[in-house]
């Protein structure tokens, strides 16, 4: 695994691996078939400089670069793809989830022109229970049509900046918040507590993130957890209204008082 960036909007992520210098990066990529970037995994939002640096290293090593945009593709980051924040471009892009607007299971792979050329005269076999399903295809067509018709990409980018400002204020207000980061319509809130690697879920006690999520649900807002003790994430739909975004953030602000109280009275 390659070391991921630790910088965030607020706080710093606990580093799982020490930073890679150029020699270490080259050694890790030597002989690899491909390098994959997942743009939201673990609440890590890779910045342009990081992406371009490891993409260049992958090219030098002869590795393919795969951009995993299953979550971020088709608008959630405020642009068509998260990788467009940098200058480098991948050989392959994986997509899913939002692509059919939630109407049906869906997955897709986009290939660069160079990859298409390299595959000329060869075969590509893929199997899926839902491949080519009419409902999925109708969902894709409708989603893409609405995305363009309602000019949602600029709106997501604009709302993302507003969310960014509010999230920073919320983080500074609540002592229970250890880290906040995100892009567009995908944000992660990490609370103080043990690192996720040290949590085994072998207790009947509800995780602090679940308590915050439950409080938010009482107030009419769904705030997700990542199946971890201290991690929350927000991923509202791209068609969310200004009023609904305000409600979501106000609810998060209020629900975090549960975590603040737990820190004060453990």
Write a structural description.
Strand 7 and strand 8 form a beta hairpin. The chain has 7 helices and 8 strands; from the N terminus they run H-E-H-E-E-E-H-H-H-E-E-H-E-E-H. The chain is 38% helix and 15% strand. With 266 residues, it is an alpha/beta fold. The longest helix has 23 residues, at 242-264. It starts with 21 loop residues before the first helix and ends with a helix. The mean pLDDT is 90. It is globular. It has helices at residues 22-29, 48-61, 113-118, 134-149, 152-173, 208-218, 242-264; strands at residues 34-38, 64-68, 92-96, 107-111, 177-183, 186-191, 224-225, 231-234. Strands 1-2-3-4 form a 4-stranded mixed sheet. It has a 4-stranded antiparallel sheet with strand order 5-6-8-7.
Brief overview:
This protein has 266 residues and is an alpha/beta fold. The protein has helices at 22-29, 48-61, 113-118, 134-149, 152-173, 208-218, 242-264, and strands spanning 34-38, 64-68, 92-96, 107-111, 177-183, 186-191, 224-225, 231-234.
Layout of strands and helices, then pairs:
Blueprint: H1 22-29, E1 34-38, H2 48-61, E2 64-68, E3 92-96, E4 107-111, H3 113-118, H4 134-149, H5 152-173, E5 177-183, E6 186-191, H6 208-218, E7 224-225, E8 231-234, H7 242-264
Parallel strand pairs: 1-2, 2-3
Antiparallel strand pairs: 3-4, 5-6, 6-8, 7-8
Helix pairs in contact: 1-2, 5-7, 6-7
Question: Any key phrases for this structure?
Answer:
15% strand, 4-stranded antiparallel β-sheet, 266 residues, alpha/beta
| Binned strand content | 5-15%
Distance between the ends: 35 Å
Q: Tell me how many strands there are.
A: 8
Q: Largest sheet, described in full?
A: 4 strands, mixed
SSE string, helices as H and strands as E = HEHEEEHHHEEHEEH
Shape descriptor: globular
Assign the structural class, choosing from mainly alpha, mainly beta, alpha/beta, alpha+beta, or little secondary structure: alpha/beta
**Fraction in helix:** 25-40%
Kindly state the mean pLDDT as a whole number?
90
Quaternary organisation of the protein chains: single chain
Low-confidence stretches: none
Strand order of the largest sheet: 1-2-3-4
Alpha carbon gyration radius: 20 Å
Give the count of helical stretches: 7
